[in-house]
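Protein YihD (Shimwellia blattae), 89 aa
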Amino acid sequence: MKCKRLNEVIELLQPEWQKEPDLNLLQFLQKLADEAGFKGPLVDLSDDILIYHLKMRSSAKDAAIPGLQKDYEEDFKTALLKARGVIKE
């Protein structure tokens, strides 16, 4: 499992870091943490924060978070009926 997450971080990190070649890795990670709103020490930055921020970094501000779009319902009534099992998918 850790190997898959490492590969995902590297795959997402490489193209973004290439856009800012003047920064070393720690400077770039700090920049990503700041952009994501992470205020703690860099050592506490989770891979989840890093992965989701890298996925969302170049997307529109109102874009859905990856993994949540599949559960998105525009109509609240429909969402509620699906959650209660009245409407089957």
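The chain has a mean pLDDT of 85. Residues 33 and 45 are 7 Å apart (CA to CA). ok done for today
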